[in-house]
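Dear support,

I submitted the protein below through the web form. The confirmation email said the job was done, but the results page showed an empty box. After a refresh the structure appeared. I'm attaching both so you can tell me whether what I see now is the final result or a partial one.
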Amino acid sequence: VRGPRFRRLKIGAGHRLDVKASGVFVLGIGHGNKLLTDLYNCHLTKVYTVGGLFGKATDDFSDTGKLVEKTTFDHITREKLERILAVIQGTNHKALLMHSNIDMKTQEAYELAVKGLIRPMGKSPPIITAMRCLQLTLPEFQLEIHCLHETQQYLRKIVHEIGLELKSSAVCTQVRRIRDGVFTLDDALLRTQWNLQSIQNAIWDCQLKVKTELEKTLG
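What the results page shows now:
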């Protein structure tokens, strides 16, 4: 190997995943650390698939927690579930508008809405921008959740609250992030691809989409 030796290589982490979650996890290398900060300031939406199981509740809202309650679930239908999801989404949409600090009667608001750029540009509570049921085969179900400023534990709590709203109980069986801003599962490297050439190719492949998003959002 020829060339200067690396004595210091700074690596930074983007939005974290806790030990029970999986999926897209963005890292920055060198100059990429500044880009991580810029992307963080864009407040981009993240997307998760979230699995749930009706009929029981635990102390930490996950299926591995300590069991605290068992309930019936035969009365739950897809229609009832989707009705609850619509209510949650509607409540969060009001919060999104409130924290975006935009006058919705202005031309600016209209243009941002058309581009899908209405988002809180500062700190806010977790906000769900969209959610839908992907699958319901009692007692199991799977949701797709689009959100901002969330934690994975917050998503587990949402599953718990959905169970309560349906006069039952529910635990979260899986939290998997499938998109983090401009990055998707297609951009992710498997553990077997953690080598210099694959990492270098991934950086090159993502440069344009990162640059485009930063110019669109931050100007």
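Response: this is the final, complete result; the empty box was a page-load delay. The two ends are 41 Å apart (CA to CA).
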